[in-house]
Amino acid sequence: MGCVSTSRNRAKRTRRVRTKTPEHLVCDVCGQPISRGLGPQRFRVYIRPYDRPSTIINPHGEPADYTNYSPHIGNERLTLANCAIFIRQVAKKGEWVMALTSTEYGPVRKVSFIAHIDDVICRRTYAESYDKARLDNHYNWDEGRFVNIPNGYHFDPKEIEQDQSCCRVLLSRKFKAFGPNTGQELPAQRREILKHFRAKHAINQRVFDNEIGAILFDELDGPTYHF
Ligand SMILES: [Zn+2]
C-alpha cells in the first residue's frame, strides 16, 4: 500500500514546488496561460536586450523610421503586448522595464527605453478597450480564444504561439525612449548593470534594489514621457 518516499525524492518534490508560482499560471480574465512557471516572481527591474530595430521615437519626440511594434508607443502609452514573454510573465504594476541596445550597434550597450509599468492587463481587455490602430493590438477575443488579425508584424504560427503563451500586456505612461539602436549611455556609476548580460541575444532578468528603476529614470538624460 503506499509508496516509499526516500529523502532524495522528497527533496526533489520540494524543489519542484518551490519553482512554481501557481497564482501566475492562468489568467482570471481569459483563462489562458500567463506563465509556464519561471520561478519566484521577485524581480524588480527587468533588463531586456533589445536585439533588433523595432521602435521608437527620435530625439524630437516624433515617431522615427522604425516599426514601432514592440514596444509600441502611441497615444500616450508605451505597451509591451507581444514577444518579450519573459518580461510580460513576471513584471508587475509599479515596477520598471528597461531595454538595452544590441552589441550590433556598438560595443557599449546603451539604454533603448526605460518604462514604469503603470498597469498590467489581460490581452482580452487590451483587445476590447484599446484602439486597434495600436500596432501591437492585433488579436481579437472571439468565442473563448484569441484570433490574430492580419498585420504586418506577427503572422508566423510560432510568433503567434509565443505571443499567446502569455496574455499579459504591460502599459506604461511614464517612460524615456531613446531608439532601438542609438540609445542612451548608462551613467558611469550604473555601468555595472551591463555585466549582468550574458550574451547579445540572451534574455536576462535581474534583481535590483527596489528604487533603482526610479533612480535610473532620473539619471538618464533624454526625452521624458509622463502622461
Ligand atoms: Zn488573460
**Strand count, sense and closure of the main sheet?**
6 strands, mixed
The ordered string of helix (H) and strand (E) elements is HEEEHEEEHEEHEEEHE
Poorly predicted regions are 1-23, 37-65, 198-209
- Relative helix content: 10-25%
Distance between the termini: 64 Å
Q: Quick one: overall form?
A: globular
Describe the structure.
With 227 residues, the chain is of the alpha+beta class. It has one domain. It contains five helices and twelve strands. A six-stranded mixed β-sheet has the order 11-1-4-5-10-12, with helices on one face. β2 (72-74) and β3 form a beta hairpin. Mean pLDDT is 73; it is low at 1-23, 37-65 and 198-209. The structure holds zinc ion. Residues 27, 29-30, 32, 122-124, 167 line the site of zinc ion (ZN).
Essential attributes:
globular, 18% helix, disordered N terminus, single chain, 4-stranded antiparallel β-sheet, 227 residues, binds zinc ion, 6-stranded mixed β-sheet, alpha+beta
Short description:
With 227 residues, the chain is of the alpha+beta class.
Helices and strands, with pairings:
Layout lengths: L6 H12 L26 E6 L21 E3 L2 E4 L4 H6 L5 E6 L9 E6 L2 E4 H7 L9 E4 L2 E4 L8 H8 L3 E5 L1 E4 L26 E3 L5 H8 L4 E3 L1
Parallel strand pairs: 1-4
Antiparallel strand pairs: 1-11, 2-3, 3-9, 4-5, 5-10, 6-9, 7-8, 10-12
Bound molecules: zinc ion.
